Amino acid sequence: MGAGESLLGDGPVPEMHHYYSKFMRECPSGQLSLHEFKKLLGLQGLDPQGDLYIKRVFDIFDLNQDGFIDFLEFIAAINLVIRGKIDQKLKWYFKLYDADGNGCIDKKELLSIFTAIQAINGHTNMSAEEFTNMIFQKIDVNNDGK
């Protein structure tokens, strides 16, 4: 090892401490509820579609499905968002969009996601239904509705 190297390296330990401090400051109980998650992201008071989308995100990050995001689940989520490889991110998005878990994303699920994203972002130059129809025409190459 060189003079400037440490046993653990520079990156993960200080970064992990930073995230742990922030997590515990925002959530002293060590467990982040859905309400606290929305507050942390500044996404309170959304319409029902936006709320449903945020709940899906929360549920996917809540790996053990106990109704809370603990620090390890929080770090796993941050790691996916910041350092995740494209295939990992695509799998996560697919899981988010495939609301019924049947392994396919149908037009109804796509519309639900676009409506929620539009509600969160406030973009309304095209309705969620128009956007969904346009996208679905391009991606449903075999016309099976999935």
TrEMBL record:
GO cellular component: photoreceptor outer segment
InterPro entries: EF-hand-dom_pair, EF_Hand_1_Ca_BS, EF_hand_dom, Recoverin
Glycosyltransferase recorded as keyword: no
GO MF entries: calcium ion binding; calcium sensitive guanylate cyclase activator activity
Domain EF-hand: 49-84, 85-120, 127-146
Keyword field: Calcium, Lipoprotein, Metal-binding, Myristate, Repeat
PROSITE patterns: EF_HAND_1 (PS00018), EF_HAND_2 (PS50222)
Top-rank taxon: Eukaryota
Entry protein name: GUC1C protein
